[in-house]
TrEMBL record:
<dbReference type="InterPro" id="IPR003593">
    <property type="entry name" value="AAA+_ATPase"/>
</dbReference>
<dbReference type="GO" id="GO:0005524">
    <property type="term" value="F:ATP binding"/>
</dbReference>
<dbReference type="GO" id="GO:0016887">
    <property type="term" value="F:ATP hydrolysis activity"/>
</dbReference>
<feature type="domain" description="ABC transporter">
    <location>
        <begin position="20"/>
        <end position="257"/>
    </location>
</feature>
<protein>
    <submittedName>
        <fullName>ABC transporter ATP-binding protein</fullName>
    </submittedName>
</protein>
<dbReference type="InterPro" id="IPR003439">
    <property type="entry name" value="ABC_transporter-like_ATP-bd"/>
</dbReference>
<keyword id="KW-0067">ATP-binding</keyword>
<dbReference type="InterPro" id="IPR017871">
    <property type="entry name" value="ABC_transporter-like_CS"/>
</dbReference>
<dbReference type="Pfam" id="PF00005">
    <property type="entry name" value="ABC_tran"/>
</dbReference>
<keyword id="KW-0547">Nucleotide-binding</keyword>
<keyword id="KW-0813">Transport</keyword>
<dbReference type="InterPro" id="IPR027417">
    <property type="entry name" value="P-loop_NTPase"/>
</dbReference>
Length: 269
């Protein structure tokens, strides 16, 4: 299978090993082929946006990378470890090195925000309770929530606050990688821009690697270093400028369509 036009495997010793590395990934559901030779390298500190038409397999790829699903073929390495070859213990300790924000925040509805943030800390560390409390409060502040939001239940929060609470939980263990599934979906444009800004500033201050599935062109322009586009069951990867020069019909329509032009103009203004 020919490689994606912009994909070039990392070689030589001058480049650090990628934080996420996917090779020859294939996914099939019965007769339906979703991925057929997906290759991807994400470097430390990069912000990568994954886009593609509806049903092209973005969520499935994300789920495969974080180990919630197994691909039909191919390899996935995260932080240097082959995710298919891990013992349960190794898998748990690898999982503690990334945070995941699901679309709706995926908070436990019967727990307060602070209790939600404490879940991974209790699961993966043996820290004393007062330190766990303190860390949870720091995470609430880090995502820009008022201190009193910590004692609220998810149902008492707005959609934007729930996302911030989910982000605080994803950051609980000081992860190296942040996975985001449609982080700005359901937010109004101002809320979405504020959330992008938050992700961008956390990424810089914490040196995070960010991998996000998104439909939001403004997010791509605002915070992504490179974009991975799922087309024809493979990834085409590049900077926005590189993708703007692509003549694949879907990529052209996406970036040069009215919404793409508006996002480009907003970035320039
Ligand atoms: N567990 C599953 N069993 C069978 N088919 C599945 C399963 N999960 C996903 N699929 C199929 O795989 C394809 C890709 O799904 P996926 O949810 O990854 O798309 P997507 O690109 O995230 O779409 P959207 O942008 O609409 O959310 C779809 O056709 C979906 O029906």
């Amino acid at each position: 299978m020919p490689p994606s036009p912009f994909f070039s495997p990392i070689s030589g010793s001058d480049m650090a090993a990628p934080v996420i590395s996917v090779r020859g990934l294939k996914t099939r559901f019965g007769a339906q082929v979703v991925h057929d030779g997906v290759d991807l390298d994400v470097q430390k500190g990069e912000v990568i946006g994954l886009v593609g038409g509806s049903g092209t397999g973005k969520s499935v790829l994300l789920r495969e990378i974080v180990g919630l699903m197994d691909p039909s073929a191919g390899t996935i390495q995260v932080l240097g470890q082959d995710t298919a070859r891990l013992s349960e213990r190794e898998r748990l300790s690898l999982q503690a090195r990334w945070g995941m924000l699901f679309q709706d925040g995926a908070l436990f509805s019967s727990l307060t925000v602070l209790e939600n943030i404490k879940v991974p800390l209790k699961e993966h560390t043996a820290l004393p309770p007062d330190l766990v409390d303190e860390i949870a409060q720091v995470k609430v502040a880090m995502v820009g929530l008022a201190p009193d939001a910590g004692s609220k239940y998810p149902s008492q929060l707005s959609g934007g606050m729930r996302k911030r609470a989910g982000l605080a939980r994803a950051l609980a263990l000081d992860p190296e990688i942040l996975f985001l599934d449609e982080p700005t979906a359901g937010l109004d444009p101002i809320g979405a821009a504020a959330f992008d800004e938050l992700i961008g500033s956390l990424q810089k201050s914490l040196g995070l690697t960010v991998f996000m599935v998104t439909h939001d062109l403004d997010s791509l322009y605002a915070i992504c270093d490179r974009i991975a586009v799922l087309v024809d069951k493979k990834l085409v990867i590049g900077t926005i400028d590189e993708l703007l020069r692509q003549d694949h019909p879907w990529i052209r329509d996406y970036f040069h369509g009215p919404r793409g032009r508006a996002a480009n103009a907003a970035k320039g203004s």
